[in-house]
From TrEMBL:
Species this chain originates from: Cryobacterium arcticum
4Fe-4S ferredoxin-type domain: residues covered: 155-177
GO process annotations (BP): respiratory electron transport chain; tricarboxylic acid cycle
Taxonomic lineage from the root: Bacteria, Bacillati, Actinomycetota, Actinomycetes, Micrococcales
UniProt-listed PANTHER family: SUCCINATE DEHYDROGENASE [UBIQUINONE] IRON-SULFUR SUBUNIT, MITOCHONDRIAL, SUCCINATE DEHYDROGENASE IRON-SULFUR PROTEIN
Alphabetical keyword list: 2Fe-2S, 3Fe-4S, 4Fe-4S, Iron, Iron-sulfur, Metal-binding, Oxidoreductase, Tricarboxylic acid cycle
Residue stretches spanning the membrane: none
Name by which UniProt lists this protein: Fumarate reductase iron-sulfur subunit
């Protein structure tokens, strides 16, 4: 009587296999630390998990004192921007499978802004620059029908890319000039100025161009493309800055 052949069980797909990932987090508690320091945490993760999931597991299961910002967890609010393996990213959009986990994954606060605690920075200097470029519609003319200001598809496309900004500061805090010059407006402020400078419904492009035609405005940009690479929304940040420079030289959008 022959012995029946046992079939090998099917391989478990990689995306549902768990494995240990080491996160090296740069910690800082202003009440007890003079300088930031690195701490390692081993967490059990799946390939499709995100860095935000790993940080949650650390906070909920290992160290409740870990501090970081997060809100929507879907790449819309922009609150969880941080440096992951030396690059600015959103923790909620960075998948474990897209990182080299053969060595510790480094996680630290974004650069160029005052560090408050762990992965949290003071965003006020960033928002101060944002407010300074007057990022809101300033239209003096009254709509003909009294209801809305009509805009063509082509007119909307002119600034459509820069409407995607979620104010995460990933672009600005990846800029070497911003790191060394606390007065530079930074890419995000210029992107948001671009959004209104080229809006056909707005009447104050000249005001914003004058603001940005400053020693700390667009002319501080060194075109390193760090900002474009860091943007989680895919905005062509460097191109937008170049278009604002051209508008200043022309004297109009």
């Amino acid at each position: 009587m022959s012995t029946p052949t046992l079939e090998k069980p099917p391989a478990v797909p990689e995306e549902i296999q768990s494995f240990t990932v080491t996160l090296s987090v740069r910690r800082f508690n202003p009440e007890t630390d003079e300088d930031p320091h690195w701490e390692n945490y081993d967490v059990e993760m799946y390939a499709t998990d995100r860095i935000l999931d790993a940080l949650h597991k650390i906070k909920w299961e290992q160290d409740g004192s870990l501090s970081f910002r997060r809100s929507c967890a879907h790449g819309i609010c922009g609150s969880d921007a941080m440096r992951i393996n030396g690059r600015n990213r959103l923790a909620c959009k960075t998948l474990i499978k897209d990182l080299d986990i053969t060595k510790p994954v480094t996680v630290e606060a974004i650069k160029g802004l005052p560090l408050e605690k762990d992965l949290i920075v003071d965003m006020e200097p960033f928002f101060a620059s944002f407010r300074e470029v007057q990022p809101f519609l300033m239209a003096q003319n009254t709509p003909k029908d009294g209801k809305e200001r009509i805009q063509t598809v082509a007119q909307r496309e002119r600034f459509d890319d820069t409407t995607k900004c979620i104010l995460c500061a990933a672009c600005t805090s990846s800029c070497p000039v911003f790191w060394t010059d606390g007065q530079y407006f930074g890419p995000a402020a210029i992107v948001n100025a671009h959004r209104f400078i080229f809006d056909s419904r707005d009447d104050s492009a000249a005001v914003r161009l004058d603001i940005l035609n400053d020693k700390e405005g667009v002319w501080r940009c060194r075109t390193t493309f760090n900002c474009t690479e860091a943007c989680p929304r895919g905005i062509q940040v460097t191109q937008a800055i170049a278009e604002v420079k051209q508008a200043i030289m022309r004297g109009k959008p």
